Prior knowledge:
mainly alpha
Amino acid sequence: MKSNIKLNEKECTEISTKLSFVIGSIDRVGSGFYGDEETALALLLCFKENKMLDILSNIRRIFDISLEKHLSEDEFEKFIEKEIEVWKPPYNATKEELLKLLQEC
Length: 105
């Protein structure tokens, strides 16, 4: 894998601005709500209203485009096909079970 991968200034400022927005928004919710249910609902509202997943996906796209420019085609294909373990939501948990899990964190 080649080293010294660099993002250009525009990419860096775009990523920084978007991450500052996401982190700042989440922090505001975390510091402005005290009940678990209210915090969870406010976070959900924040994510939906501001299309946070779209913002985060866009950040990943910027990184992927930059990475693709610096890796060979084979290296990039191996990188994007690598399995990443993601969080498994407790889909069948009740509201009470979810709140208990939250309090255990």
